[in-house]
Write a structure and sequence with these properties.
Elements lengths: L19 E4 L9 E5 L1 H6 L9 E5 L4 E4 L15 H6 L2 H5 L9 H6 L2
Antiparallel strand pairs: 1-2, 2-3, 3-4
Length: 111
C-alpha cells in the first residue's frame, strides 16, 4: 500500500509573501511558471491602485495577478512550463523545489 500514489495533480498550498520563483497563479494556465513580481513598476506608473493586488510576469511572458483571496500557490506536483525551465537561472533550475509531498502530513494521507 505504501507504493500507491494519489491520482491527479496537487498544489502545495498558498505561499506567504511570494515575490519570485516557481508557483501557480490561480486561473492562469495549467503549468507552474517561474514568476517575477512587477507590481512596483506598475504602481509607479499609476496603473495599479489596489494595495493588496500583486502582479507577476513569467519568464515565458505570461502575466498574472494574485490577491489575498487568490494567492500564489506552491507548484506541488504540477508540470512546469518548458519555456520557463529553459530561461530560469541556473540556480533556480537546480534548486530542489519544495513540493506538497515534502510535507509529512500529506504523505501520511496516502500510506
Amino acid at each position: 500500500m505504501s507504493d500507491l500514489k494519489p491520482p491527479g495533480t496537487f498544489s502545495g498550498g498558498p505561499i506567504a509573501d511570494f515575490t519570485d520563483g516557481w508557483a501557480l497563479i490561480p486561473f492562469v494556465g495549467d503549468r507552474g511558471h517561474y514568476w517575477r513580481d512587477i507590481t512596483r513598476g506598475l504602481r509607479k506608473q499609476g496603473l495599479i491602485a489596489d494595495e493588496s493586488m500583486r502582479v507577476y510576469r513569467s519568464l515565458c511572458g505570461v502575466t498574472g495577478s494574485a490577491t489575498p483571496r487568490s494567492p500564489a500557490l506552491n507548484v506541488g506536483n504540477w508540470p512546469l512550463c518548458k519555456h520557463c525551465t529553459k530561461k530560469a537561472p541556473r540556480w533556480a533550475r537546480k534548486e530542489e523545489r519544495v513540493t506538497c509531498w515534502s510535507d509529512p502530513t500529506v504523505r501520511a494521507l496516502f500510506r
